[in-house]
Amino acid sequence: MKRSRWILATVGLVLSAAAVFVLLKQVSARDLWLNLRRADPGWLLAACLLTTVVYWIRAWRWGEILSPVARVPGGRLFATTMVGFLAINTLPARLGELVRAYALARSERIKTGTVLGSVVIERIFDLAALIGFWALSLLFAPYPPWFRWSGYLTIALSVTVTAGLWLLHASHHVPSSFGSRLKRLLPARLKAPVQRPVASFAEGLRVLGKPSTVAYAGLLTLVMWIVTGAIFLWSVFP
């Protein structure tokens, strides 16, 4: 096994042990056992299988987002995704996103900044899906004004961030774009310290210049969230 694979396996084992420790600290082992005994084995198995499918689709989408930069084997993407989301559920402030970006970067010899760029694009897709579900829910439930305004603010934030990412992508990959002209206006003393990391991050945004790949990743996002919704509904209304 290559050294990078050993690193990924070690990170996974350490995070697994940390996750079990955190779980046992927060949950009564006796209550957990009683709830498992009450659970329907068929529904529990179906939920576990569908959850695995969701993570596989997520890894598949991640590979599509990274495809303009590098083609990563699906098995490696899936393993790194599982390690990352284990870290997300264990560490605060979604630091697991950094863990999976670092793990894939080391495994595939891609710059960490580039992988982080692809992770940010993933979050944009997820936000778009959540906004879509939020908009649909307004048709069926009388939510309070604060809930509506939270959605409007999320939409505004998402549009602003997406526009900023597009400008960053355009400034590095679209000749004579507005972003390129804007970048030339920045003083050299401001550009020099961040030029290399920003360029690395912008590499992870190359998918923004591939409309067909964006559409395909959007379709995978829709399927992924529909399956996630089905799991939630089955857990609430078995």
Describe the structure in your own words.
The structure is a single chain. The protein is mainly α. It contains 10 helices and no strands. It has helices at residues 3-26, 29-38, 41-66, 74-90, 96-108, 112-137, 145-173, 178-185, 188-203, 211-236. Helix 1 packs antiparallel against helix 5 (96-108) and helix 7 crosses helix 8 (178-185). The protein starts with a helix and ends with a helix.
Offer a few descriptive terms.
238 residues
List the helices and strands and how they pair.
Blueprint: H1 3-26, H2 29-38, H3 41-66, H4 74-90, H5 96-108, H6 112-137, H7 145-173, H8 178-185, H9 188-203, H10 211-236
Helix pairs in contact: 1-4, 1-5, 3-4, 3-6, 3-10, 4-5, 5-6, 6-7, 6-9, 7-8
Question: Short summary of the structure?
Answer:
It contains 10 helices and no strands. With 238 residues, it is mainly α.
What about the largest sheet?
A: none
Mean pLDDT value = 84
Give the fraction of residues assigned to helices: over 70%
Rg over CA atoms: 20 Å
